[in-house]
Amino acid sequence: NASVDLPGGMKVLVSKEKDKDGKYSLMATVDKLELKGTSDKSNGSGVLEGEKADKSKAKLTISQDLNQTTFEIFKEDGKTLVSRKVNSKDKSSTEEKFNDKGKLSEKVVTRKDGTRLEIHR
User: Where is this chain compositionally biased, Basic and acidic residues type (predicted)?
Assistant: First the structure.
């Protein structure tokens, strides 16, 4: 497997060979949670998913140019957002938290120079 560095200090492991469906296997560990997925590309881009102990779902989306990662946590239904963190290669990030109904309750934007902007609803 090849290891690819991603924004936000994450790494993704990419299989060297395609599987029977012609896709590359992707593996990553985020917050001690193992995520798996497949991709048409061998550069590490794609979508990885996993499930937490409380049955909530996690999804990591890696952009094709590897410049951005989006890490989302959903409730058990796999649809209602709990949190989302977007990391960009320039070290900027956006972190969002959602209430029980999936509505945005808190947003923290960190600019590439490290300054933070917090928005509470």
Answer: 87-103
